[in-house]
Amino acid sequence: MAAALAWPAAAADPELAAPVKAYEGAELDFTLRCKGCHGFEGQGTEGHVPRLKGFVGLYTHLPGGREFLLRVPGVARSRLDDERLAAVLNWMIATYGPEPAPGFAPFTPEEVAQARVTPFPDPLARRARLVAELHERGILPAADDGMGVSAEARAAR
Amino acid sequence: MIGKGLDRLVEGMSRRIAQRSSRRSFVSRLGMAVAGGVALPILPVDRRGQIKMAHAEEFAKTAQTTDKTACNYWRYCSSDGYLCSCCGGTYNQCPPGSQPSPTSWVGTCINPDDGQAYLIAYRDCCGKDSCGQCACLGLEGEYPVYRSELNNDIIWCFGAPTMVYHCSSAVLIGKA
User: Of B143, B114, B62, B59, which Cα lies nearest the Cα of A22?
Assistant: First the structure.
């Protein structure tokens, strides 16, 4: 901390002259390990990586949604231990929303430990089924799949 | 879709390896991956986090904070590729004619001036032939290709208009 207050680096690197956001805890883990692909604002990468912002919390409204979040390979195969991974999942839901389903219980390290042993071998098919269910239930507009892929293009696949 | 994604991943890996590595270095790294894959499960404790910090500290020992065209500039501890600052761009901006990839590889580097760890996003600039200048090989936080999401040999041009790699930029994200 004392080293951070001494600020000689500012002269050498102009970006360090301005205040720099400090990351810690679950947000630090998420930033280091997830944001590179899911986007620094949770916006995703069109056609490649799902957006999280205003989307990821929708899974909590479906029976298989919780399991999907735990067993999707990017989560299950993470190098984070069970406790930090559970904290990241809870941070992600709280940060990106939307509001989780009534009665939603935070992820626990114990359920993370149990679920991550068997990552989904077919995450895209699993995701497609859940997104279809969100559409059927009217929770998500049909034009939106969280990946920026049109309904026509999805149907053609 | 899975096939397409896999194709792009393999294409990215192949391009990156072809553009940046000798066959000998690839074989050597592949050997490390195989050996590591066998050795890690029998380690009595998980020291991977400690090893990672040790690498960051090691890089910081010889890093400098003024010359952005040198591989030992403090931000480049995990940069694997050509420095955009040598290619008509800057350390954090793509050269004209190339586009920043929407996906990036995030690493942690220590600034030797203040001793603070910072998050750096290594954002490949894509859509133009390889720059070929100032090739650097930062390894901080990198894992062999069996953890492809943690490997920086792969071209990170996913989501960019083309997978053609030009150079790598290093964007400051925040303090770790």
Answer: B114
Query: Is the CB of residue B151 less than 8 Å from the CB of residue B72?
Result: no
Q: pLDDT per residue over B122-136, tens digit each?
A: 999 999 999 999 999
Q: What is the Cα Rg of chain B in Å?
A: 16
% of chain A surpassing 70 pLDDT: 87
Please provide the size of chain A in residues. 157
Q: What is the pLDDT of residues B103-124, one digit of tens each?
A: 998 999 999 999 999 999 999 9
CA-wise closest residue to B156 among B5, B56, B12, B6: B12
Q: Where are the alpha helices (DSSP H) in A1-157?
A: 2-5, 9-12, 25-33, 35-38, 65-71, 73-76, 82-96, 109-115, 123-136, 151-156
Query: In this structure, what DSSP letter does residue A57 have?
Result: G
* Tokens 């996913």 belong to residue: B158
Q: Min CA distance, B5 vs chain A (Å)?
A: 8
Closest of B96, B89, B105 to residue B148, by C-alpha:
B105
For A111-127, the pLDDT digits (tens) are: 999 999 999 999 999 99
Taking CB atoms and an 8 Å limit, are A20 and B158 in contact across chains? no
- Interface with B, mutate which of A72, A79, A84, A126 (most B CBs under 10 A): A79
Test A37 with B149 for CB contact under 8 angstroms.
yes
